[in-house]
Design brief:
heterodimer, A: alpha/beta, 4-stranded antiparallel beta sheet, 36% helix, B: mainly alpha, MetI-like fold, two-stranded antiparallel sheet, 79% helix
Amino acid sequence: MTQPDRGFVSLRDVHKTFAVHKVINGISLDVARGETICIIGPSGSGKSTLIRCINALVPVDQGSIHLDGIEVNTPKLDKLALRRRVGIVFQQYNLFPHKTALENIMMAPITVLKQDRAEVEARARALLKKVRLEGKEGAYPGELSGGQQQRVAIARSLAMRPDVMLFDEVTAALDPETKKDVLTTIQDLARDGMTCLVVTHEMGFAREVSNRVYFTEGGLIVEHAPPAEFFSNPQDPRTREFLSQVL
Amino acid sequence: MLRLSDALAPVHVRLTSRAALAVAAMVFVGSSAMAAAGSAHDSVVTILIRWAPLLLTGFLFNLLISVLSMAVGTLAGIPLGMMQLSPLRPVSRLGYYLTQFFRNAPWLVLLFICVMLLPFEFRVAGLRIPFPDWVKAVVGFSLPAMANVSEILRGAVLSVPTGQWESAESLGFNRRQTMFQIILPQCIKRMLPPWMNLYSLITMSTVTASVVGVSEMLTMTAQVHAAEGSRPELLAPLYSFAMLCFFVYAYPIGKWTEYLERKYQVKD
């Protein structure tokens, strides 16, 4: 059976209901390898749930989700095979508080992938350098600022060598100064060719970094377009109203 | 502000514990003096000095029973708590019912059951292993300790933010790896204050072992009182001495628990 021309990450008519609350109401989207997309929209429009569906943290009710040929919405899903290819970073960092920054990054490759400790440590140190946190190897999460913790969280995900990175409002809990460091880190990743799906409220970041912007409301994608077009000439009245409030 | 109060906390603990000790000692000395007044018998102090080694041996027995009960209760309570948290419903149900059963049974009844129903010796491969009353008492106190440790563990695990589970799951950790490497290590400091609290309660309740004839402090105190002719004026000093021993042992533990509770509350 020939596959239709799908993206590297591809969602088709995805539905999700929590109890009686319909959170996702039939969403389809495609992301090509190496592309960065931003998902914006009002709170409660299903953005965070959508991103959690892609790595099977949230099981969907209906529809299909593909990641480089792996069907996510099936009971036969090999979750580990999926999750080693998808990194996710959360709004609340969720670092392991009893481990140092370096250990946080090293844990999953050693425990989950059974990789060689020395090799993992070298990679972890390089990743800390990449997120500009050299010298913080021995620091515990409680000793780091929000922005630093978030960059450790990004490095922790990258240590699994994923093909896709998901970001769930990763700067929403940060103050403006530390926000910039985190956004720069994501921008570097995007530039290096990582496939990124970014849920964000940072319109400047969406405009500059993304290849495409998706606007969600009421569990639906209302509109999507390349950023230049999206911000200068929004088509849907709901998009226009949202943009007039946040810009 | 927090740092300052943290630094002062041990000093504060020391001061109040001294004050409380002083009050307890005053009650003790006062009652001894009353008993000694106008008596042709040996003075209370002489009697106490005479019997102190025996009484303190009894007290050591209380401590031994409490420590062993807590050790066994903890070793059994942790797996029981893990059972309660199991994703397999039959396992979690069984863990829940066992925990609830022993948590809601009166400690004295459990003690009676153990002392009356357990045999006085075991025979394993021709070998006679004696099973004295005090060991049965340890079993009796271990059961409620186990059930309470099980609940303490369950509460601690559930108090870890769900984000920890979410991020571990996203990184590919399975449930077991998440539990042992990420969740449980974070639970130890959450569990410590309630665990120490439980230990104090167990220690206090070890005197109920006197009802079933274990030679612990309360039994010894009653025997000493009888040996001294059961004089009513000796009741207060003798039993005050027993209380004082428990107080001196348990009060610092309680204070330390409070201190840890405050310390961990601030940091989380």
